[in-house]
Amino acid sequence: MRLKADLTLLIVSVIWGSAFVAQRVAGQLGSVYLFNGARYLLAALVVLPLAIRAIRNPAAPQKISRNQYKWMFIAGFLLFLGSALQQAGMVYTTAGNAGFITSLYVVLVPFALFFGWREKPHWMSIVAVVLAGAGAFLLSTGGRFEVKPGDALELIGALFWTIHVIVLGKYASKFEALSFSVGQLFVCAILNFGLGAFVETSLEFSWPLLFAIAYTALFSLGLCYTLQVWAQRHTPPADAALILSLESVFAVLSGWLLLNETLVAIQIFGCVLIFVAVVLSQFKEWNSVDHEHLVEGR
Question: Is the Cβ–Cβ distance between 212 and 26 less than 8 Å?
C-alpha cells in the first residue's frame, strides 16, 4: 500500500509540473484570486458527485463529523493562503524563482515536524532535503538566483504549503478522502473569490485563460488533491513532500516540451540531485520491511 501511495504521489507531481505552464499563462494575464477561485470551484464541483456517492455508499456509508468539518476548513484555509501567495508572487517574480522558493516546503517539512510535533527526523531525511533543496535551486535558477519583488510572497507561501502537507498527512487520514477533498476545495474557492471581489475588478476571459482554468481545475486540483489526500494516508509526510518535489523536474520538462525552453547542464544536474533525494528518502524504510506481509491484504 505504501508503494501504491508513493506511485500515486509521483503521478500527482507529474500533473502538477505540467500545470505550472498553465498557471504561468494565467499569471502573465494578471489574474490571481479570481483565477484561483474559478479553478478551485470548478474542481470542487467535479469531485462533488464522487464524494456524494462515497458518503452514500450502502456497503460503507460515511458520516461527516464536526471534527472533519473543522479540519476541512483548516486545510482549505492553508490551501487558500499557499495558492494565493504563489499565484500573486508569479506576477512579480520570474518563473525560476517561483519554482525554487515554492519547492522549499520540501526542506521545511521535516523541520516543521520536529519543532511542531517533536518528531526527530531521520538522518537520511536531513541529507535528502538538503539534496532536494540544492537540486531545486540548480534546476529552477540555473545556478543564478536574483532577488525579485515577488520572492517574499513565494517564501511565505512555501511555509503554508509545508503546513498543508503535514495537516493532510496527520489529520486528513482520519476521514473519507473524497468528501475531505471537496471540502477543502470549496473553502479555498470561497476565500479566493472573497478576496478577489475586493482587490480585482473582473476576470477577463480568453481562450488561454479558460484552458488554464479547465486544466488546473480538472487535473492539478480536482484529481491531484483527491489523490494526494488518499495517498498521504499511507506514506509519511516527509517522504510525501520529497516525492512531490519532483514537480519542479516535470515543470521544467513541460516547459521544454510545450514552451521550447532549453535546459543547461547545471539544470540537468539539479534534476539528478532531486531524484537521488527521493530515492534516499525511501531507502531508510527498506531495512525495516515486514517480509511476512509483503502482499497487500495478508
Answer: yes
